[in-house]
């Protein structure tokens, strides 16, 4: 079954649609959703969840609903689920996917197994856009929006850590949003990247080699995506982490001694004893024939192949200390034709820091993460009047469990792939 609905919805009032649930099976996944969401149709599924499109009767618009996949099967999944919800709840930016609602049909902590995140529905992911021919105007505008979204996350102390085409979605007007924050974590300290982080093809050299990382690990990923949009295929399709490193140095060249000196001894020994590569110039890696030779309808002299290659050469730098920053990328000639201070810098008000919401180094059991997320979901549903507070376990809502006030812990507080569509067919934005 690929779609679902519930009869007699027209006879329900607003309160009933927002509080009553119905069951529908999409593919091999059972959904227990509020009656306000009708005509469910599958979009896609992955390790983190199953995503469907639905029509929200109350809002009068189509939305995406992500059912998290077995969020409490282990500590890693439980922490990811809590992290993704908190970040989506707190991040408000036009280039970050918006969280519209969250719900569960289970009203006790013992029964709590399912979490549903309701998000904006977009037209396609960049997986589909990669297959299209994009001119400089559309390429630069998509890249500008990625950088604006990432800058917003970084200003809040968040490193995304898993940027890839399937985690970036677009509409047919060329507007873009970043999603899936289950792997994001605190910035500001050189952390060792955990093994499961970042899809291999978009993994930065400092991650592959076990070095510390900082915000510009996301810049490498954006550079890989940018190059893929131009070339129409993955830049560094490594079969494993060693092959991934080989693919990088074969194209970009072996790193200099100043970089090798920062590696751990065993890693350095391996890298030094590999065959050396001189790499290729970016003129050879991205020749003119890869670019769509189409004049911009707005400012044809602003954007050109040389500018695109220059930005790529500054993003795809093996040494993170020499890689371009987000701010400098936004001011690059290939990007700054779109520059709008309100989009780049936001309201100017201090951004709530991610570290104030989640302590990434805090070790909890699955049960504690589950209780923390349950408390957040129920609080949301209570505020949105999707649940009757009288039916709840008030020990949790009143902070009487051992994991909250007694331990001095505060109440801390992905639509994955959108359907293929005729995305980015026209750029309605004007070059600024």
TrEMBL record:
Where are the compositionally biased (Low complexity) regions? Answer: 413-423
> What residue spans carry the region label Disordered?
403-432
Pfam families cross-referenced by the UniProt entry: Pkinase
What InterPro entries does the record tag this protein with?
A: Kinase-like_dom_sf, MAP_kinase_CS, MAPK, MAPK_JNK, Prot_kinase_dom, Ser/Thr_kinase_AS
- As recorded in UniProt, its EC number(s) are 2.7.11.24
* A GO term for molecular function: MAP kinase activity
Cofactor(s) needed: Mg(2+)
What SUPFAM superfamilies does the database record attribute to this sequence?
Protein kinase-like (PK-like)
What Gene3D superfamilies does the record point to? Phosphorylase Kinase, domain 1, Transferase(Phosphotransferase) domain 1
Q: Which domain of life is it from?
A: Eukaryota
Major subcellular site: cytoplasm
The UniProt record lists the Protein kinase domain at 37-335
Q: List the transmembrane segments.
A: none
Role: Responds to activation by environmental stress and pro-inflammatory cytokines by phosphorylating a number of transcription factors, and thus regulates transcriptional activity.
- UniProt family annotation: Belongs to the protein kinase superfamily. CMGC Ser/Thr protein kinase family. MAP kinase subfamily.
The protein's name in its UniProt record:
Stress-activated protein kinase JNK
Protein source organism: Stichopus japonicus (Sea cucumber)
